[in-house]
Amino acid sequence: MDFIINNLPIVICAVVGVVLLVIEMFMPGFGIPGVSGLILLGASIVMTWMRYGPIAGIGVSIVVIALAALVITLSLKSAESGHLSRSALILRDTLKHDGSVASGIDESELLNRTGQTLTVLRPAGTVSIDGQRYNVVSGGEFIQKDRPIIVRQVEGSRILVEEIKT
């Protein structure tokens, strides 16, 4: 029992550190959870090193790295197809099939569609395509308001249009 009580701070630091690193994966940027997780993992290794010597410290380092890799791998797999993928943490509408993040605009849905300018495009402005408003850019030319346009290219959230000459 004394062994567990004496080593409880080491175990708590390691487990909480790994949990904070997993939380950091689902938050944008490298913020407080990531830094705190790394500090706690480092603290667990240093406490082991000071209490039991360098061999034990190296052993805990290996265990902590393996544990972190395992938990992160399982979290990522679960985010793709497991229980976590059905949670509110994962934005299903923005995930593409290849695992990358979509821009929110479906390229195949807009390419070669026609619409009408709602504002003057100089070269950026607003158009209406099938009743939906989109911020677009022209290829550099000015397009007057209430002119017919066609979508020529979609790159991320950038929609390139050109005027349909009548």
Provide structural commentary:
This protein has 166 residues and is of the alpha+beta class. The longest helix has 28 residues, at 54-81. The protein has helices spanning 2-25, 32-52, 54-81, 107-110, and strands spanning 114-117, 124-129, 132-138, 148-155, 158-163. A hairpin with a 6-residue loop joins strand 1 (114-117) and strand 2 (124-129). It is 46% helix and 19% strand. The chain has a 5-stranded mixed barrel with strand order 1-2-3-5-4. It has 2 domains: 2-90; 107-163, Beta Barrel (OB fold (Dihydrolipoamide Acetyltransferase, E2P)).
- Poorly predicted tracts of residues: none
Main beta-sheet annotation:
5 strands, mixed, barrel
Q: Give the helix level as a range of percent.
A: 40-55%
Shape: rod-shaped
Could you give the count of β-strands? 5
Question: Kindly state the mean pLDDT as a whole number?
Answer: 80
Q: How many structurally independent domains?
A: 2
Oligomer description: single chain
Strand order, main sheet: write it out.
Answer: 1-2-3-5-4
Kindly estimate the percentage of residues that lie in beta strands according to DSSP. 15-25%
Along the chain, the helix and strand elements come as HHHHEEEEE
Gyration radius (Cα, Å) is 26 Å
Number of helices: 4
Going by helix content, strand content and strand pairing, the class is alpha+beta
Q: Whole-Å distance between the termini?
A: 87 Å
Provide the descriptors you would attach to this structure in a database record:
166 residues; alpha+beta; 5-stranded mixed beta barrel; 46% helix; 19% strand; rod-shaped
